[in-house]
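Why show two proteins at once? Because comparison is the fastest way to build intuition. When a single record is shown, students tend to memorize it. When two are placed side by side, the eye starts asking what differs. So, the first record is below.
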Amino acid sequence: MVDTLFLDDWDALTRERDTRFAATLDRIFAYHPFYKDLLTRAKLRRRDIKGVADLARLPVTTRQDYLANPHAFILTWPDAALSDESSVWDVMYTSGPDGVTAPFASTSYDFMNILALNRNMLRLRGAREDDRILNLFPLTRHPHGAFARTMNAAAAFNLPVTAAMPGTPNARQPDIGNGLDTVLDIVQRSRPTILWGVPSYIRELVARADEKSIKLPWVRLVFASLDGFSEGMRADLIAGLRRLGAEDPQVSVSYGATEMQGSMVECVKGAGFHNPAPDQFCFEVVDPDTHKPLEDGEEGLLLLTHLDRRGTVMLRYASGDVGKLVRERCPHCGALTERIIGAPRHHDGVLKVDGRLIDPQALSDLLLGRDEVADFQAIVEYEERPAGVGIGKGRGKLPARDRLRIRVAPSGAVLTGLSQMLAERVEAVFKVKPVIEITSAQDPMLAGRGWRVSPLMDLRRHKRR
């Protein structure tokens, strides 16, 4: 079997990709509801697309296209085609704006690829044969992949894994779901070398262990997601684990997507986010407005193409993130694959609030860089104002105005004046005075959110002025 992560040159990788992509294209032209229609309207025939070099001839697929009719992105096999290619193995869900969900189907064929993808993620992140994983992802209302794929990754690498099941106990099954102290008991019992979960929760777990003088000398790696992550949080996690006895803990950050059923990962800090399965996915960067391909190192709209899938399949799919892509061999691990350099950000994710621009990543850096804050969710919404105080006809209700509301989960006991201090810091940076609401990590808005939910949500579109 060819190890497509470490081929000799890019031409060899292109040949491997084209072989897999040809079989996928055959099935797309025959059985894909969305692309059969799109390619017909674009007057493109199967012989017009010979390989990845021809991707630029295809139109860009937007996230709005997918969310509008997600079932149209699933290959519709004929009834006679009962095989690993057509048998649905599982269905995960991706989160759209304001909690809208869309199914993402994987067949048995796809699941084998998912196992290979997750195995490569662990290879790149430095997993060893003697590692033990603690799965700290909570169960969510809709399966988003994080919980299940962590278990799958352990299986693919033949590693023991313990599911800590953090979160509020299930109302129907109260034995399912564990509080923070119970999770700490599980940590001590399972002695994990890898903590894998939402960074804000891992930070809270480490802080609680420190508070209870519980040592965690076995931990050497933390696998954390990019969303809601800051470099201050990385330093805080490493310092906290060292206080708990870990000798040289490292934090590996990932850029995940339901549409991958995995993540692009760092091999070391600063090396960029590697495409761990270049035989399964191809990435491009294009101009956000014209969709013209950009050179390596230029920032643009990130596009994902499935080269080897049989369930939900996407071509030149834009999730809405922008970033910089390079295709040179990684100088640290030697992998020959695409890498995103720097942190991708949501295109058009910057919101205007009362005439001021707020960048979600800048807000995350500001709040999560504080020791007192474990997690947060910011919401921009309309605030109704009372009737005007005037005379004559002008005494009606005043137009609604923007309000920035931030729900904050403290990392420990709530400090006196915390709300005021955070409000002042946000106002000083962004020139917008927020409403700070103190909550907990078990808040449904925090604990139940999916991978693609921005730390800054805009609810104004659903309420007219």
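Second record. Ask yourself what differs from the first in the token line.
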Amino acid sequence: MSRVVSAQRIASLVGDFSRSPAYVGLADSLRVLIGDGRVGIDVRLPSERELTSALDVSRTTVTRAYEVLRESGYAEARRGSGTFTTVPGGQRRAHDRALMPGTGGRDVIDLNCAAHSAPPGLVEAYQRATEQLPAYLGGPGYFPLGVPELQARIAAAYDARGLPTAPEQVMVTAGALAAASVVAQAFTAPGERVVVESPTYPNATQAVRHAGARLVPAAVDPDGWDLDALAATLRQTSPRLAYLIPDFQNPTGHLMSEAQREALAAALARTRTTVVADEAHQALALRPGLAEAMPPPLAAYADDAITIGSASKSYWGGLRLGWVRAPMAAVERLVQARIGLDLGAPVLEQLVLADLMDHADEVLPVHRERLVAGRDALVAALREHLPSWRFRVPDGGLALWCELPEALGTATTVEAERRGVVVAPGPVFAVEGGLDRYVRIPWTAAPEDLTEAVRRLAAAWDHVSTDAARPAARAAGRVVVA
């Protein structure tokens, strides 16, 4: 059944739209709302009469605005049913076949990628950035360290979090994964050991492997880090680097406390191990008041630490921007490693991110509200339909790390895909195998889609947990990106 958006909701979202002329301003506002997801796809818009009353405009204004939407591909009329939202090229234009293979059907709910649609305000940020772009067109457009304006804003954000940073200590990259690749190339040699958490973000560990390093797993338990065990691993293996996710660890969602960060930094110093702290989820604190009370960066306790940041989770993955914050003495080494991969990130997107960071107090709270709504819907659905699955509700991040009663994670996800929902099984996040009692479920889809996804997961679990379905299924190969 298609969803419906009320005239009052549309009126509150479009706000004080441009009236020169009014139908163009209304159509432009509706295009932005549909494009950034505040009004979903395949949603029935209010009737012209209802919207005319709610906006206090003429019927002609709404009629012509709907015509513009249809002509531009953002709406379609269905005889006898009304006007429904769509997007140019259809709904599948939002997904890449290499990233999400086998999920082209319209009824598939794909939760393989823990990333949200663009937050409100992104279109306006692009518009303002485009106005700044001409000032850069007279140069070559290469910024191996990043556009200075963005470097300055990232450095200022670290300053505000208690980590004094000069803009020259920041390198902007084409995403956090590219940042991990640069760091691995710069600071590891073939055969050197790198400690990584398990479970952890698999694409980052793959980047370390590509540099020729040997991965040494350090377990992250359902209740958090065992720092004594981690310190023992550091002593026994003398690794070159330790790649860790202290802020809403992916996939467990754990947040490392200030005391833990201090103890970890001391253990790293004793073995002369450089820590690479992945902060891709740092801005996604969802518990009320936590965003203002987050622990300082791990680098505030470890002088030689290297920090990786990302715009993909806090703003939008389509920006494809991340960064490395490093001690000044390490910057030249990073630059030399980076120019063998690329010569810089796109200028326009860097200007967009700088603008978004200037408006973070407006953009991020709305983004977090959407995530909270998804998280709460997912938790409620799991407790209703899969009460035997155990999970801890994290204070931030993007996903639940669910423990199943039996080691049937892979079999469940394969059966779930047959039923039209895609999630990642635990072994994807394991460094050396195992973890088949776990499944990761992001809360980045719409609440109603998450509820339906859990219903399908419950049906899949009921099927594979019966004796007749015990033989293990082979998981379809796919890329996990978050």
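One difference worth noting in the second protein: The radius of gyration is 24 Å.
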